[in-house]
Amino acid sequence: MGNRAPVLAFFVVVCSAIACGPPARPAPDAAPTECEPGAIESCYSGIAITAGVGACHAGARTCSADGAWTGCTGEVVPVAEACGDAIDNDCNGAIDDNVDADHDGFTSCGGDCCDNAGLCSEPALVNPGAFDFAGDTFDNDCNGLADDTPLLCDQSIASNTASALDYARAIDICQGVVGAKLTLADGSGTPDPEGRAIRQHFGANVLPQGGVRLAILSTGGAAAKSDSSPSFHPWVSYTHAGINTSPFPADFLAANGGVLPNAPGCPNPAGSTANDSEMLTLRLRVPTNARSFELSVNFFSAEFPEWTCTSFNDFFVVLLDSTYAGEPANPADKNLAFFDGASSTHVPVGVNLAHGNTGLFTQCVNGATGCSGTTGTISTCTSTTLLAGTGFDDPNPGACDSNSLQGGATGWLVTRGNVVPGEVITLRIAIWDTSDHAWDSLAVIDGFRWSGDPVEPGTVILKTQR
After folding, report:
1. pLDDT tens track of the chain, all 466 residues?
2. 138 inside domain
3. In angstroms, what CA-CA distances link 145 with 38, 57, 102, 131?
4. Is 362 exposed, middle or buried (0-12, 13-18, 19+ CB in 10 A)?
5. Cβ neighbours around 326 below 10 Å, total
6. What is the pTM of this model?
7. Which of 236, 274, 334, 466 could potentially form a cystine with 185 if both were Cys, beta carbons 3.0 to 4.6 Å apart?
8. Domain limits at 171?
9. Interatomic CA distance for residues 48 and 56, integer angstroms
10. Rounded to an integer, what distance in angstroms lies between the CA atom of residue 429 and that of residue 409?
11. What b/e readout covers 30-63, taking b as 16+ CB neighbours within 10 angstroms?
12. For residue 47, which of 137, 119, 112, 96 has the smallest C-alpha distance?
């Protein structure tokens, strides 16, 4: 039998995913853990220097089965001193100590929930005289609730109210009002009720900057075209009823050498009396943790554009009486309603902000200005949206421009000043006509706020117009 060649058999096994399953993958790394399950350790969430002092002591936390620490149980941390219980509650080493360790005017048994550094980081700023900073989740005013300073107190105020306290609430001052009154510009007399109002809006688009209402002071009527109580008066013809003149604010005038300040290059206002004036005077107790304040202002005037940079300029002032003597300094004449422009040009808030392109007069039509006085041009007008429905938006072709409207406005500005924590300040907000009783102006005021930081006093444009 002959030789036969060897037979080689090859077997190829084809394996589907269904038959053999997916390919093996490496095991994932174990999730990181905070601790070894079952471990127990001491814990304390209070300020370290208070641990083991008075009633304060550490607690314990346990590592759970998934390797995470539980909360700290059994600890006692500092709280405000409960005088009379023979316990050192604030853990400062003294029992029932009725003291003012942080020198803020409030004692540990007199309502100060943070009288020493064991309770919070800045004890002098925390007491019943403070205000709650929004969003810091801390009980700054020691009333048992965090972030509860009232920010809404202007609901249900009648538009024609005669109460000066209602005007404080309308501009969002909800606490600390010591006194309030409505007078003429020198602090005397009773102003025309038609020249002031509290509104939910002015015209179609000027809305509150805080709360649900805003305040209006005017040398004419304090109403847009569709308003009532009081009702609308044309912006060129209304003269306040009753005693409608007074001297200018004496201290403001004296600080300016007996002459009303004015925009550089513009003629001085004529006359020596404040015509058709309205002034709101507020005495306010400054919170113990406040170092400044701000309020929002929107100034409208029928003097734009023809009477810009003439002697017929209405004045708007925010005069601050405070003991503050630091830096940045408040103005020597007390008026915060001014703008410092290029080369330190000092321009009071008013229609002359439209002269020289300061950038603070924006609700208007660009073109010629001052055609009845010192001529100029303006190119910083950005819109007329905030004039809508006010009457200042009515067409009024005049000597300056065939496209002119009845008036113009600054848009929202913000006015700021510095104060001393805990003092009582006086704030006088006033508007008046100079030289005549015609071509009226109006100021919308709202959005008062305290701040814990010093500011550069004066008036600047509000970056976000609403």
Report:
1. 444 444 444 334 444 444 444 455 455 555 678 899 999 999 999 988 899 999 999 999 999 999 999 999 999 999 888 888 999 998 988 898 888 888 888 888 888 888 887 778 888 888 888 888 777 778 888 887 887 777 789 999 999 999 999 999 999 999 999 999 999 999 999 999 999 999 999 999 999 999 999 999 999 999 999 999 999 999 998 999 999 999 999 999 999 999 999 888 899 888 889 999 999 999 999 999 999 999 999 999 999 999 999 988 899 999 999 999 999 999 999 999 999 876 567 789 999 999 888 889 999 999 999 998 889 999 999 999 999 999 999 998 877 888 889 999 999 999 999 999 999 999 999 999 988 899 999 999 999 999 999 999 999 987 654 4
2. no
3. 37, 25, 21, 11
4. buried
5. 10
6. 0.80
7. 274
8. 164-461
9. 10
10. 18
11. eeeeebeeeeeeebbebbeebbebbbbbbeebbb
12. 119
| Contact (CB, 8 A) for 98 and 65 | no
Cβ 238 vs Cβ 220: under 8 Å: yes
Instruction: Please report, for residues 42, 355, 386, 443, the alpha-carbon distance to residue 381 in angstroms, rounded to integers and kept in the order given.
Output: 65, 12, 12, 18
Residue owning tokens 């009720």? 193
In a domain, 360, yes or no: yes
Is 255 in a helix, a strand, or coil? helix
Structure tokens at 31: 């999730």
Residue 75, Cα to own-chain centre: how many angstroms? 40
Q: How many CB atoms lie within 10 A of CB 80?
A: 18
Torsion angle of C-alpha atoms 344, 447, 297, 379, degrees rounded to 10 = 70
Q: Is residue 438 part of a domain?
A: yes
Domain presence at residue 32: no
Can you tell me the distance from the alpha carbon of 364 to that of 298, in angstroms, rounded to the nearest whole number? 13
- Between CA 463 and CA 412 the distance in angstroms is 8
List alpha helices for 192-293, DSSP H. Answer: 250-255
Question: How many whole angstroms separate alpha carbon 369 and alpha carbon 379?
Answer: 10
The pair of structure tokens assigned to 465 is 């117009």
